Predict the 3D structure of the following.
Amino acid sequence: MIGPKDDLFPKPHQGGMVLFAFFIGIYGAFVGVNALAPEWMEWEVFPGINLAVAWGMGIILATFLIAGNYTWMRRTKAISTKGANHS
């Protein structure tokens, strides 16, 4: 049975909010440039690849990196918490 001290839904990791704000900044800039200066997205940053495609792929890569970083932060915190409770 679950008691009052059991933590089914742990508080969000504070670092997660920082990572989320970082992602919102990257994505918000992408949307802002598309809305306010769409001609910038036509710039060719690599041969055959314009800024829109490069930035979009960068957002996808950043999402995976942010998720991996958050997972690592949560796992590190869980391991340190378990080690403190069992010693």
